[in-house]
From TrEMBL:
Listed InterPro entries: Ntn_hydrolases_N (IPR029055), Proteasome_beta_3 (IPR033811), Proteasome_bsu_CS (IPR016050), Proteasome_sua/b (IPR001353), Proteasome_suB-type (IPR023333)
Keyword Cell division: no
Gene3D superfamilies: Glutamine Phosphoribosylpyrophosphate, subunit 1, domain 1
Function: Component of the proteasome, a multicatalytic proteinase complex which is characterized by its ability to cleave peptides with Arg, Phe, Tyr, Leu, and Glu adjacent to the leaving group at neutral or slightly basic pH. The proteasome has an ATP-dependent proteolytic activity. Non-catalytic component of the proteasome, a multicatalytic proteinase complex which is characterized by its ability to cleave peptides with Arg, Phe, Tyr, Leu, and Glu adjacent to the leaving group at neutral or slightly basic pH. The proteasome has an ATP-dependent proteolytic activity.
Protein's recorded name: Proteasome subunit beta
Compartments where found: Cytoplasm; Nucleus
Keyword field contains Protein transport: no
Summary of subunit composition and partner proteins: Component of the proteasome complex.
Pfam families on file: Proteasome
Keywords: Cytoplasm, Nucleus, Proteasome
Primary location group: cytoplasm
């Protein structure tokens, strides 16, 4: 078994019209044994930027703490929040720095940039970025997520339709992977008319076996 599959994970980020959604499963396992069913894989950097970390759970938590530290230093020095593109470069540099003893993580970054333009990207454990205009996936269920997202995705979806699409893609994919599942967590971020950014968090009920 690969070290990336040790805890099991499923992560997907998808873009819509001036919005994005990032979703993960909630299972924490040790190989085939389930340890927890409320594990958090999606983390907030600031109101318009989120990161999901698949792979080894301990490395994911360590890496998130390092990223929060670096982002706070940036905020103190620059007196503004980091743009998603800049943050993706930071994550990539952090991973590549440790390339001879890497963090066993595959991050998924999603955020709203200038003019509420959604930005998503993923990378491998060495920090090689993969940018996309539609969706990115990561984790042990990535193959079935690719299939589900390819068939369900359509461009310029409104927030409600985007939520429905990413939820269906996640739930149908984790049913085909025994290392991930146990419900889902979806985070929807969109630019509202009156408020700067609207954030909705939802827990999905899935198969519990």
């Amino acid at each position: 078994m690969s070290i990336f599959e040790y805890n099991g994970s499923a992560l997907v980020a998808m873009v819509g019209k001036n919005c994005f959604a990032i979703a993960s499963d909630r299972r924490l396992g040790v190989q085939l044994q389930t340890v927890a069913t409320d594990f958090q894989r999606v983390f907030k950097i600031h109101d318009r930027l989120y990161i999901g970390l698949s792979g080894l759970a301990t490395d994911a938590q360590t890496m998130y703490q390092k990223l929060v530290f670096r982002h706070k230093l940036y905020q103190l020095r620059e007196e503004r929040d980091m743009k998603p593109q800049t943050f993706a470069s930071l994550v990539s540099a952090l991973l590549y720095e440790k390339r001879f003893g890497p963090f066993f993580c595959q991050p998924v970054i999603a955020g709203l940039g200038d003019n509420d333009e959604p930005f998503i990207c993923t990378m491998d454990c060495l920090g090689a970025k993969e940018l996309a205009k539609d969706f990115v996936v990561s984790g042990t269920a990535s193959e079935s997520l690719y299939g589900a997202c390819e068939s369900m995705y359509k461009p310029d979806m409104e927030p409600e339709e985007l939520f429905e699409t990413i939820s269906q893609a996640l739930l149908s994919s984790v049913d085909r992977d025994c290392l991930s599942g146990w419900g889902g967590y979806v985070l929807l971020v969109y630019a509202a008319l009156l408020t700067p950014t609207e954030v909705q968090e939802k827990i999905l009920k899935g198969r519990m076996d």
